[in-house]
Write a structure and sequence with these properties.
Chain lengths: 309, 327, 426
C-alpha cells in the first residue's frame, strides 16, 4: 500500500497539470481546428494576457492606478476577477487584428498563415519587452486562492487546485458553447464546409474574426492562470507554445476531446516521470508524441482534415 | 538560365569573390561575411525542402547542430584531417535526417511541421543533457581550424579571410550540387510533389521515398553548413537547435524569396545578417523591426525579395517562355 | 561611407597552431597615442533569459567608465565603449565579439552571464589576444577547463557558494540532505561540490533529484521532497527554473521544514520577484546594505548616475560589472600602456583590499586560473526590512580561502602561454 499511497499524490498532480495544459492548448486548438491556421503567436498572446492582467490589477503605482483610483480601492479579489475577464478581452482584440491581417493569406498556401503568425509572435514578444521591460513580475493573488493546503500529511499549493478547477470549468464552458449553442454549430460548420455556410447567408468573415478573437482570448486567460505558477517574463510564451503543439498533434487535429485527453496524458507523463525518473520529465512528452503518432498517424482522435493537403 | 540571370549571377560571384576587400568599407567585417555564407548554405539546403518540395521543417536546426557537433567530435577524437571531419559531419547529419524522415515522410502539412518541431526539441534536449560528449550549455569548445590539405599545398585557415575563401569554395560546390539536383528529373518530381502530392502518387512515383531522400539530402547539407559554422566559431553550441533559431532560417528563406527562386535563401541570409548587425548596433529591439518587416512581406509580397525582382523584370522585359518554377 | 581604420600593429608572431589574425590591408595611420581613446566592447545581454541582468551588468560597467573619465580617463586618454545585445545566445556572442574586435577595434571586452555566451566570446577574444573580463558568469568551468590567458572571471562560482554554506549547515541544520540539481553543466558541477562538502562534514545525501532545464512545474519535486523528509535541501537550480521554483515554494510555504540552501541568487532576479518569493538561505557576493565603509556612498553614486533605472539600487550583478571595469582601467594605468600582455600581468597579480572591495575580506586574483577569489556572503529573506529595497538579511560571510574551488585550480585549467597569445597595443 505504501507504493500506492506514494503514487497517489503524483497521479493527482499529473491530472491537475494535464488540466492546466488543456487550458493552454484550448485556444490554439480552436483556431487550428476551425480555421485551419497554426497560430504561432499563441505563446506571445499567452504572455500578453498575463502582462495585461498585471497592469489591470494595479497593485503597484502605474497608469491604471493613477487614473482609476476608485478601482484600486476595491479588494484584491474583486480586482483579480475583473482582470480575469477584461485582460482576455483585450487579448482577443489583438487576435482580431491578427485575423484581419491574415485574410490576405487565405486561399494561398497555408504556410503563409503560419509564417505570418510566427512574425506576429516575435513582434508581440518584443513589444512586451519594450512596454514592460525585461524584468520578472509576480502576479498578486487574492488570499482566498493562495497559500497551502494539507492533504494526508502532504502540503499542496492551494492555487494549483483553483487553477485546475478553473481550467476544467473553461473546458466545460467551451464544450457547451461549441456543442450546445447555435453559434457553436455555425463554427463547426464553418470548419467543415465554408461554402455552404456562406450559402446559408452567414457572414463567414465575421465568424472567423470571432473565432480568432476567442482563441486569442483563451490564450490570454491561460496566461493569467499560469502566471502565479510560471512567473511573468517576456519569453514565457515559449513554454506555452510547444506543449500546445504537441498536445494538438497527439490528440488529433480537429478533436476537442482528443486535445483534452492528450493534455491529461501529457500531464501524467510529465508528473509521473517527474516523480520517478525526473531527468526525463520534459523529454517524456516528446517520446509520448512519437510513440502515439507512429502507431496512430493522426493522433488519438484525429479526423482527416483539409490541413493534410 | 536567361542572360540577365547569368549576368546577375556573375555579379554575385564577383561580389562574393572580392568581399574581403570591400566589406570593411561598408562598415561591416569579415566574420559577418563568413556567417552569411554559412547560413546562406544552410538556407539553400533548407529550401530544398520548403521551396521545392513544400515540406515545412521547423526543426531544421537539429541537423545544422548535429553537423557542428559531429565535426567537433571527429576533430577531437578521430582525426585532424579537415576533409574527413567535414565528411563525417555531413554523414552524421544525413543519418539523423534519415532517422527522422523515416518517421515523418508519410505525413505532410501541419502534422509534418509539428513532428519536425518535436524532433528538433529532442535533439536540443540531447545536446544539453549529454554534456559529457557535447559540453552541454558550455558548448563543445576549442575547436581548431585545420589547414585545408590539397595534397600539393596546405592552406591554413586560421585567419578569417582564408577561412572565408574556403567556405566560399565549399558553399559554391554545395550550391552547384543543389542546383543540379533541382534541375534534374529528381528535382522535377519533388516539385510535382509540392504542387500535388496525391497526383504525383497516382502517376506512379514513390512519394514516400522521394520525401525521405530529399530530407536526407537537405539534412546532410545543413550539416555541412553546421560544420563550417563550427569551424568559424571554433565551437558548437546547443542553441542553434532551438525553436527560435530554426525559425530564423525559415524566415530568412521566405524573405529572400525561397519559394520562387533558387537564390532567394542566400539573399535572405544576407539581408537577415546585415539588417541584424546594422539594427543591432543601434537598438536592442531589432527583432521588432525585423518581425514587422517579415510580417509585411508575408502579407504583401510572399514571394520575397527575389519575387519582387522577378516581377519587376517581368514588367520591364517582354515575357519569355515560361521557365520552370525555382529558377 | 568611407572609413579609415588603423589596424593593430602585431608586435609578436604567434607560435604553432594558435595562429594570429590577419586583419586585411593595413593602413598605418598613426593617431597621437596620447589622444586616442581607449575603447571597451561591452558584450551584455539585452534579451533572452539574462536580458534583465545583462542590462544591470551594463549599468555597473558604464558607471565605472564614467567615474574614470571624470578623473581624466586612463593614461590621459578618454575611455569610450560600444555595446550590443548578445541575446543570451553563443552564436551571437561570437559575432558580436568579432565585430567589436575587428570592426570597432575595441581593446578590451567585458560582460556575460551565460556560460555559453562567455565561452563563445572568450574563444574569439583569445584568438585575437583581446583581454576579456567575464563579469558575471558563475559556472565552475569558467575558470576551470574553459579558462584562457586573456580571460578573467569576476563572479563567485557555484562551488564557492556551496563550500561557503555547507560545512556550517551540516552541524546546525541536520545530517540528511537532498540535492535538487538542474540537469546541465553548471547544476551538476555545483551539486558535485556540494555533495563532497556534505560527505566530508559528516552528512549524508539521501537522494538527488535531477531537474531538466526549462522545468516550469516543481510540484512533483515538492511532493517527493515531502515524502523523503530530509533535514536540508540543497538546490543547484538556476536560470528561469529558479524563478519558477521560488514562486512555487513561496506558495507552498514549504520553506522552513525542510531547510533550504540555494546557490547564488542574482539581485535583478530577486528584485523582479520580490521578497515574498525568497526562501531558504542563498548566496551573493555583495549587498547594498552591508555595514561597511564606502557602501552607502557607492549606492548614492549609482542612484545619481541611474536615476530612472528599473532597479533602484545596485546588486551583485552591477557590483561585479563595476568592480571588474574599475580594476581593468586601474591595471591599464599601472601597466602604463594598453599592451595586452602587460595588462594581463597586472591583473594576474591583482590584490584588492577589503575597503576597496566594500566587502568583509580582501580579494585576490588566482594567477593560475584567472578567477578572482572574494568574500562569499550567505543571506536569507529579511523579515524586518528598513525600506522596500532591504530584501536580504546577511547571515554569514566567508573568507575567499575557505570557499576556494580546488578543482579548477591546477587540475582543470590550462592557460595558454604568453608567447602563444597574440599581442597588440591599441
Amino acid at each position: 500500500m505504501g507504493f500506492v499511497s506514494d503514487l497517489l499524490p503524483h497521479l493527482v498532480n499529473g491530472v491537475s497539470l494535464g488540466l492546466l495544459f488543456a487550458l493552454i492548448a484550448l485556444g490554439f486548438m480552436l483556431i487550428l481546428g476551425v480555421m485551419e491556421v497554426i497560430n504561432l503567436a499563441h505563446g506571445s498572446l499567452f504572455a500578453l494576457g498575463a502582462y495585461l492582467a498585471l497592469t489591470l490589477l494595479a497593485s503597484k503605482p502605474g497608469p491604471v492606478a493613477a487614473n482609476f483610483a476608485w478601482f484600486t480601492a476595491l479588494p484584491l479579489g474583486t480586482r483579480y476577477a475583473l482582470a480575469l475577464v477584461v485582460a482576455p478581452l483585450l487579448v482577443g482584440f489583438f487576435g482580431m487584428v491578427i485575423e484581419l491581417c491574415l485574410r490576405r493569406t487565405y486561399g494561398k498556401d497555408p504556410l503563409y498563415g503560419l509564417l505570418f503568425t510566427f512574425g506576429a509572435a516575435l513582434v508581440i514578444e518584443e513589444l512586451i519587452r519594450v512596454v514592460w521591460g525585461t524584468r520578472d513580475y509576480v502576479l498578486p493573488l487574492p488570499p482566498a486562492i493562495s497559500g497551502s493546503l494539507v492533504v494526508e500529511g502532504l502540503i499542496y499549493g492551494k492555487y494549483r487546485f483553483f487553477a485546475a478547477g478553473f481550467a476544467l470549468t473553461m473546458i466545460a464552458l467551451l464544450w457547451l458553447f461549441i456543442e450546445r449553442t447555435p453559434y457553436g454549430s455555425i463554427i463547426k460548420a464553418g470548419a467543415h464546409d465554408s461554402e455552404i455556410v456562406r450559402a446559408l447567408g452567414i457572414n463567414l468573415s465575421r465568424l472567423r474574426l470571432f473565432v480568432f478573437a476567442l482563441g486569442a482570448g483563451l490564450a490570454g486567460i491561460a496566461g493569467i492562470v499560469m502566471a502565479p505558477i510560471w512567473g511573468i517574463r517576456p519569453h514565457v510564451g515559449v513554454d506555452a507554445v510547444v506543449p500546445a503543439f504537441l498536445i494538438i498533434v497527439l490528440g488529433g487535429v480537429g478533436s476537442f476531446w482528443g486535445a483534452v485527453l492528450a493534455s491529461v496524458l501529457v500531464g501524467l507523463a510529465v508528473g509521473l516521470t517527474g516523480a520517478y525518473a525526473s531527468e526525463w520529465s520534459l523529454l517524456s512528452m516528446y517520446l509520448l508524441l512519437i510513440a502515439v503518432v507512429t502507431f496512430r498517424a493522426r493522433g488519438l482522435f484525429g479526423k482527416k482534415s483539409v490541413l493534410e493537403a | 538560365m536567361s542572360r540577365s540571370q547569368a549576368a546577375l549571377l556573375a555579379l554575385l560571384a564577383a561580389a562574393l569573390a572580392t568581399l574581403p576587400f570591400w566589406i570593411a568599407r561598408v562598415g561591416l567585417y569579415q566574420y559577418l561575411g563568413i556567417e552569411i555564407l554559412v547560413w546562406g548554405l544552410y538556407a539553400l539546403s533548407f529550401n530544398l525542402l520548403l521551396g521545392y518540395t513544400g515540406l515545412p521543417s521547423f526543426g531544421h536546426g537539429a541537423y545544422f547542430g548535429v553537423g557542428a557537433y559531429a565535426f567537433g567530435l571527429m576533430q577531437k577524437h578521430v582525426s585532424l584531417n579537415l576533409w574527413l571531419d567535414l565528411g563525417g559531419a555531413i554523414l552524421a547529419a544525413a543519418l539523423c535526417g534519415a532517422l527522422v524522415a523515416a518517421f515523418i515522410s508519410h505525413r505532410r502539412g501541419i502534422y509534418y511541421a509539428l513532428m519536425t518541431i518535436a524532433f528538433g526539441q529532442i535533439f536540443w534536449f540531447v545536446a544539453v543533457k549529454w554534456h559529457s560528449v557535447t559540453g552541454g550549455e558550455d558548448g563543445l569548445l576549442n575547436l581548431k581550424r585545420m589547414p585545408a590539405d590539397l595534397g600539393f599545398a596546405s592552406i591554413p585557415l586560421t585567419d578569417n579571410v582564408s577561412l572565408y575563401y574556403f567556405v566560399l569554395v565549399v558553399s559554391c560546390l554545395a550550391a552547384w550540387l543543389l542546383w543540379r539536383i533541382v534541375h534534374s528529373p529528381f528535382g522535377r518530381v519533388i516539385q510535382a510533389i509540392r504542387q500535388n502530392e496525391t497526383r504525383a502518387a497516382f502517376i506512379g512515383y514513390n512519394v514516400w521515398l522521394y520525401k525521405w531522400l530529399v530530407f536526407v539530402i537537405s539534412a546532410g547539407l545543413s550539416g555541412l553548413a553546421g560544420a563550417l559554422f563550427g569551424l568559424s566559431q571554433l565551437g558548437a553550441f546547443p542553441d542553434v537547435m532551438s525553436l527560435h533559431s530554426s525559425g530564423f532560417v525559415v524566415m530568412m528563406t521566405l524573405i529572400g524569396g525561397g519559394l520562387v527562386s533558387f537564390w532567394g535563401p542566400l539573399i535572405g541570409a544576407a539581408v537577415f545578417f546585415v539588417a541584424r548587425d546594422a539594427l543591432g548596433a543601434i537598438t536592442s529591439t531589432w527583432p521588432l523591426w525585423y518581425g514587422l518587416m517579415f510580417m509585411a512581406i508575408v502579407l504583401l509580397k510572399p514571394e520575397g525579395i527575389a519575387g519582387m525582382w522577378q516581377s519587376r523584370r517581368a514588367r520591364v522585359a517582354p515575357p519569355t517562355v515560361a521557365t520552370q518554377p525555382g529558377d | 561611407m568611407s572609413k579609415t581604420f588603423s589596424r593593430r600593429r602585431v608586435l609578436k608572431g604567434a607560435a604553432i597552431g594558435a595562429g594570429f589574425a590577419f586583419f586585411g590591408p593595413f593602413r598605418h595611420i598613426s593617431y597621437a597615442q596620447g589622444k586616442k581613446p581607449i575603447k571597451l566592447g561591452l558584450t551584455c545581454d539585452a534579451s533572452g533569459q539574462y536580458g534583465d541582468s545583462g542590462q544591470d551588468d551594463l549599468r555597473g560597467i558604464v558607471m565605472a567608465i564614467d567615474e574614470f573619465n571624470a578623473k581624466g580617463g586612463v593614461l590621459g586618454r578618454k575611455v569610450i565603449y560600444v555595446t550590443q545585445d548578445t541575446e543570451t545566445t553563443p552564436a551571437t556572442g561570437s559575432r558580436v565579439a568579432e565585430r567589436f574586435i575587428t570592426r570597432e577595434e575595441c581593446g578590451f571586452l567585458i560582460g556575460a552571464l551565460s556560460s555559453g555566451v562567455a565561452n563563445a566570446v572568450s574563444q574569439v577574444a583569445q584568438k585575437y589576444g583581446c583581454i576579456y573580463l567575464n563579469s558575471n558568469s558563475s559556472s565552475p568551468t569558467e575558470a576551470g577547463k574553459d579558462c584562457h590567458r586573456t580571460k578573467f572571471v569576476w563572479d563567485g562560482n557555484g562551488t564557492n557558494f556551496s563550500k561557503a554554506t555547507v560545512k556550517n549547515a551540516v552541524s546546525s541544520l541536520g545530517k540528511n540532505w537532498l540535492l535538487l540539481t538542474n540537469d546541465y553543466v553548471w547544476g551538476i558541477n555545483t551539486s558535485k561540490a556540494t555533495r563532497a562538502e556534505i560527505e566530508s562534514s559528516g552528512g549524508k545525501v539521501i537522494d538527488e533529484l535531477m531537474v531538466p532545464q526549462n522545468t516550469r512545474d516543481f510540484t512533483s519535486y515538492m511532493l517527493k521532497i515531502q515524502q523523503a523528509k530530509p533535514d536540508v535541501v540543497a538546490a543547484a537550480i538556476g536560470g528561469d527554473d529558479i524563478k519558477a521554483l521560488r514562486q512555487q515554494v513561496a506558495q507552498f510555504k514549504l520553506e522552513n521544514k525542510p531547510a533550504w540552501i540555494n546557490n547564488q541568487q542574482d539581485w535583478p532576479d530577486v528584485w523582479g520577484q520580490g521578497a515574498a518569493s525568497l526562501f531558504g538561505v542563498f548566496g551573493t557576493t555583495w549587498y547594498h546594505k552591508l555595514k561597511l565603509p564606502g557602501v552607502d556612498d557607492f549606492v548614492r553614486r549609482y542612484q545619481a548616475r541611474w536615476k530612472d533605472a528599473p532597479i533602484p539600487v545596485p546588486g551583485n550583478v552591477s557590483y561585479n560589472g563595476y568592480m571588474c571595469t574599475r580594476e581593468l582601467l586601474s591595471a591599464i594605468g599601472r601597466a602604463g600602456s594598453t599592451n595586452n600582455i602587460a595588462v594581463i600581468k597586472q591583473l594576474e597579480q591583482l590584490k584588492v583590499s577589503a575597503a576597496d572591495r566594500m566587502q568583509h575580506y580582501g580579494a585576490y586574483m588566482n594567477p593560475s586560473t584567472h578567477h578572482l577569489q572574494q568574500t562569499i556572503y550567505m543571506a536569507r529573506r529579511n523579515d524586518k526590512p528598513v525600506d522596500n529595497t532591504d530584501l536580504f538579511e546577511i547571515v554569514s560571510w566567508t573568507k575567499p580561502e575557505d570557499a576556494l574551488d580546488a578543482r579548477e585550480d591546477d587540475m582543470a585549467c590550462k592557460l595558454e602561454t604568453y608567447e602563444s597569445t597574440p599581442t597588440y597595443e591599441l
